[in-house]
């Protein structure tokens, strides 16, 4: 169990984590989501005792990470797989970690096998691909057979077989009653892997609910629209509760109106519509609508320009 109370982290004038409360319960996979810069890594670093909270607290199994006498046996963490730059072999790297925590060779061999690293166990870690590095990081996280496992972007760089391996592994860990916290930007993967979600936006919790609830809550609130006359459509549907943002591929996502309302408004204004899709069925859609206001860098507003309004 991981518990955060009023957890806060400031870097100078920047508040990365703004007084959040959450619980990560055992026996299920909890997905940790949020746009870039939302505060996920900072929160994970505080859980792992690598960053000190500016205020508030976070405990793992009732204690701050650093107060555990055998932290590796309590919490397994994969934070930054690229952090391992060593001339040692994977086996020697894990053996050295194990030795400092009183863990035997047998367990080292077990995690090498578990991570599918047998064929490269004696190769230099420095020459590993990103995917191999991820597997090694996961093997290291599991070395102490911990009750709590925290994995930051574990499928990053993995091929489809590796992605499936992580999914099966974390589901198995949760089924054994362990606490599993997992971050990923891959929503389709998260939908298949997680039971529960904690979504951050600009350092705050914007959702803490089951995957099904998150999807249900966003149901019917967003519609993807393609039209050759987006500015005209914008005028036709403008209203206080309506917002429109563009996607990279030129489509627009409208929130605050149903597909029917948008289609009718476009028909009345004589505007051609090439696509009208209710975005309610996938976690990705739910996530995008949930975090639409929280994205610092990506979304582009397509509010009409003054010239368009004047026309
Ligand atoms: N050491 C630091 N010094 C200053 N600002 C920092 C530091 N670490 C993080 N930040 C800032 O805090 C905010 C949260 O960053 P964090 O890395 O926790 O976000 P994230 O949700 O993990 O993002 P990503 O998905 O991109 O990994 C960002 O605005 C980031 O620039």
TrEMBL record:
Alphabetical list of SMART domains matching this protein: AAA
Pfam family, one: ABC_tran
Keyword Glycosyltransferase applies: no
Domain of life assignment: Bacteria
UniProt entry keywords in alphabetical sequence: ATP-binding, Nucleotide-binding, Transport
Record-level Gene Ontology MF annotations: ATP binding; ATP hydrolysis activity
Chain ranges of the ABC transporter domain: 2-227
InterPro entries reported for this sequence: AAA+_ATPase, ABC_transporter-like_ATP-bd, P-loop_NTPase
Family as reported in the entry's similarity comment: Belongs to the ABC transporter superfamily.
Name used for this protein in its record: ABC-2 type transport system ATP-binding protein
